[in-house]
Amino acid sequence: MKKACFIVTAISSLWLSACSSSPQPKDKPVQWEEKTAGVWNVSVGTPEKFNLLSELQITPKYEAIQQMGEADLPISKEDICMEVVDGKTYIRFPLEKGEKIFGLGLNFKTVEQRGRIMRLHVDHYGGDDNGRTHAPVPFFVSSRGYGALINSARYMDAWIGTSVRKDSKNPPVTRDRNTDKDWEAQPYSDNLEFLVPAEGVEVILFGGPSMLDVVRRYNLYNGGGALPPRWGLGFWHRVPTLYSDKDVNKEVAEFEEHGFPLSVVGLEPGWMSRSYPCTYEWDKGRFPNPDDFVKGLNDQHIKTNLWMNPYVSPDGELYDKIEPYTGSHTVWCGIVPDYTLPQTQDIMTSHFEKHQLDKGVSGYKMDENDGYDSWLWPDVATFPSGHAAEQIRQVYGSLMQDVTTRMYRKRNQRTYGLVRASNAGTSSFPYVIYNDYYDHRDFITALINSSFIGILWTPEVRSSRNAEEWLRRMQTVCFSPVAQLDAWADGTKPWTFPEVEKEVREIALLRMQLIPYLYTAFADYAFKGIPPVRAMNLEEGYSAEATLQEGKLDATENPYAMAVRKEVKDQFMVGPSLLVAPLFAGEKERQVVLPQGKWFDFYTGKYVGEGEVIHVSPQLGRIPVFVKDGGIVPLWPAITKITREKHPLEIRHYGNKPAVYELYDDDGETFDYEKGEFTRIQLKVTNEQGKKSGEVLLPENGQVWSFRDFNFHFMTD
Ligand code: GAL
Q1: Residues 591 and 534 sit within 8 Å (Cβ to Cβ)
Q2: How remote is the CA of residue 105 from the centroid of ligand 1, in Å?
Q3: What is the CATH code for 230-522?
Q4: In angstroms, what is the span from residue 390 Cα to ligand 1's centroid?
Q5: Which residues are paired to 693 by β-bridges?
Q6: What distance lies between CA 214 and its chain's CA centroid?
Q7: Which CATH class is domain 536-552+560-627?
Q8: pLDDT tens-digit profile of 564-575?
Q9: Cβ contact 599:606 at 8 Å
Q10: Does residue 460 have its Cβ closer than 6 Å to ligand 1?
């Protein structure tokens, strides 16, 4: 890997009139520093040493950022006001009319955040987008084409276009409530304000020009996106809590009988001798021979993923060793390791290695590191590192991801797992957030939001009131970062609703077929910072303005422009070309907003529209998926296991545009790709007067690990 290099062009910018109303004199000019192309940082006041990134071992991908080129900021740095007042840091960004703000945590109900007030605080999501969530990342992306990370591990307040200053440059109109029907309870605001309860903070700015570029720079600065092992993109099934080895093996055999794919089996708390708090040791009754059990699954190409939470039980061998490195308070009577300490990291790693990694376990589901408040240590707790309980809470999930990723990396083995808490700086960690909240629609909104803040999220499936809901939920999870059935409580099986067993099997198999496409999308996340599952707002050609320039209608008459201007919370992009528009139980039809350019039906290749709002009423077995003109989708056969075998590749091409697609391939399991051990296979389609042809271009000496027999399939006549 290339060593990080800093390009430091010190741009001194100032701290002037923007803060003119400050009650404190400003004695120090603020020094912005360009860290790398289009990324600047500044320290205001005296930032705390402990921040969201300081405890994590991440290396920015400077080279990839530099390849993106320089970027100008659409705002002047002088217009960002920062000051320390009364031991707290106050930061203000200007907002202009029509500007949209995205990000600021894993929100479940809203995509656009302008108009909201939040306290960003790690917690289990409780039903309100108030900042308490699994990943309250203090990073925003503005539709003007820039973003900022407020790098503090304190609970911080954000007023996102809600506050009005006396010295506002764009003040709202003062109206008389008695007589003016246009009076507003929340007048227009041109500020985005943060209050950090610390005497200073680092602010990192990311340039565009597009919002996707902002997100890419942010992800690359955080080490690039995660590249899961290939098996991680297969189908996952978590078994009920108290299953024994025999129960698991029986269920695995049933997957085979039903012709369902299976790549990972997840064991829930009952694999452990004690849980809540945990021993991280196998239960001798339910799993008398864990070595053979895990090996037996591995031999069938099924990986084992284990549930855990952070709290250590007095009944295991770990307790005495870790006790000196734990906090003052207990959770469920378990002690709380202070993961910021190297001693803790070493002790926990050795224990995990001995009891899990050496036995062949592929990864973890790291639960309960988020909250709820009454289930966590209080903010008055103390930790041996001396860090504040609040700060430890804000990064606990991130640290567990970092430590366990490094533990696997030491073996040159990739892992892929689940976690319930995260924050800034975790883009490169191979973990996907999940939770207990179970609203299908809101799950999709979270999927969209995850793409703004450098995290992965899964709308997991676990139970259902009826067959229709079951199928609809299965369809969406198969287009998410982890296709997982989490049957820990309900024991639901993919075939539990026989009326839709065939359709559920089809979608699970489609997930397996899509692995070459998904794996390439993840490689683009790792190397280029492009989120594999993305908000429509990050898609080129998806803007009201784009239509208005070309069209004759104005924004009030043009239904497309109106749709795009509204918050779209129920459709998203997967990889470069797929637009997924899920249906929810009870729905027979829905509208889909198609960005500019022609779009085609994934299943038939037929043209469906361009830059417009369409209505679709698909059969129950189909989740609406559309492909952009020139979209190439490489598909494996409908396999049920992920092995090291090479499979024939069907290369689907949609529409009529010539296209080039850089299919990614590597060994799928190790970190050798970081040393250059990977191949980009060029799949090229030309269209000479309506005659399409395809070509596969392999780089010289390029190794191919997972494909053979390339066949083009032109889906559109
Ligand atoms: C919950 C978790 C569930 C399941 C359960 C087991 O906290 O979100 O997915 O793992 O614990 O007790």
Answers
A1: no
A2: 22
A3: 3.20.20.80
A4: 23
A5: 686
A6: 15
A7: mainly beta
A8: 667 899 999 999
A9: no
A10: no
What does pTM read for this prediction? 0.95
440 in Cβ contact with 472 (< 8 Å): yes
Amino acid at the residue 538: L
629, with CB counted inside 10 A (0-12, 13-18, 19+), is middle
Tell me which H or E stretch contains 419.
Answer: strand 417-419
Cα gap 348→350, rounded to integer Å = 6
| Angle ∠(308,314,320) on CA atoms, nearest 5 | 105
Residue 643: CB atoms within 10 A of its CB come to: 12
Q: Whose Cα sits closest to atom 5 in ligand 1?
A: 488
Sequence spans of domains, the chain? 12-221, 230-522, 536-552+560-627, 632-714
CB 172 within 8 A of CB 182: no
Q: How far is the CA of 201 from the centre of ligand 1 (A)?
A: 35
CA proximity to 376, closest of 121, 108, 118, 51: 121
State how far Cα 398 lies from the chain centre: 13
> For residues 653 and 659, is the Cβ–Cβ distance under 8 A?
yes
Among all chains, which residue has been given the structure tokens 């246009």? 182
Protein residue whose Cα sits closest to atom 3 of ligand 1: 436
Superfamily of domain 12-221, CATH level 4: glycosyl hydrolase (family 31) (2.60.40.1760)
Angle between helices 467-477 and 501-513 (to 10 degrees): 0
DSSP, residue by residue, 477-511 = HTTSSSEEEE-TTT---TTSSGGGHHHHHHHHHHH
Q: In what order do the strands lie in the sheet with 632-635?
A: 632-635, 647-653, 707-714
Beta bridge partners of 142: 101, 146
Tokens representing residue 340 in the block: 């910021």
Surface-to-core class of residue 333, CB atoms within 10 Å of its CB (0-12 exposed, 13-18 middle, 19+ buried): exposed
Token digits for 337? 């390791």
The pLDDT score that the predictor gives to residue 147 is: 98
What residues have CB less than 8 Å from 49, skipping those under 6 apart? none
Q: Ligand 1 pocket test: which of 123, 370, 436, 482 has the largest number of ligand atoms within 8 Å of its C-beta?
A: 436
Tell me if 12-221 shares its fold with 230-522.
Answer: no
Q: How far, in Å, CA of 136 to CA of 129, rounded?
A: 10
365-421 pLDDT tens trace = 999 999 988 899 999 999 999 999 999 999 999 999 999 999 999 999 999 999 999
In the predicted structure, residue 560 carries a pLDDT above the cut 70: no
- What does each C-alpha distance from 689 to 605, 686, 692, 693 come to in angstroms? 19, 10, 8, 11
Would you mind telling me the total number of residues written for the chain in this entry? 717
516 in Cβ contact with 663 (< 8 Å): yes
pLDDT in the model for residue 246: 98
Q: With contact defined as beta carbons under 8 Å apart, do 414 and 439 qualify?
A: no
Q: Please work out whether the CB of residue 488 comes within 6 Å of at least one atom of ligand 1.
A: yes
Concatenate the DSSP letters of all residues of 347-370 into one string. Answer: HHHHHHHHHTGGGT--EEEE-SSS
Q: Among 135, 115, 5, 136, which Cα is nearest to 60's?
A: 5
Q: Tell me how far apart the alpha carbons of residues 111 and 383 are, in angstroms, rounded to a whole number.
A: 36
Which two structure tokens, joined as six digits, stand for 255?
């997957």
